[in-house]
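Model it.
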Amino acid sequence: MNTLQETPPGTVRTSLRERPAGPAGAAPARTAAPARTPGHTEVAEPAGTRGRTTIADVVVVKIAGLAAREVPGVHAMGGGLSRTLGAVRDRVPGGRPNVARGVKAEVGERQAAIDVELVVEYGVSVPDVAREVRENVIVAVERTTGLQVVEVNVAVGDVHLPGDEDAPAETRVE
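Modeled.
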């Protein structure tokens, strides 16, 4: 019978292995395990699973925002005010579009819940676009982060009509 003895963390354990019993009644012979390098401890877990990985909300928000924008029929992300402010910012030289606009996420250790607010193109099926956004966001976030997405709530806040101006009117000052 093999017995394992508890060793304090950080100490080297030299395990003793028993050989099968020899002739009837003979005690099993014990042999020392191969020598270990100093500082080596036997750990049952693979190296890739030792420790913790935390994923910030902003990471999930950006992944979800990019995934939602990939769906045909999505014109813009966010509500009226955030789109207006974003359009002004995007017009500034060197200004980048905010991929997080219109997306909120709640991230736990293993799960995420996501809210997406978007503007759809006129003429598309809103339920179909919402379903495709939901599917694309879930696939992208789960594949990229390993988190389980428990829900994606899609709010359609506006419809973009042909000829609508995206940018706010020109200001009087420069």
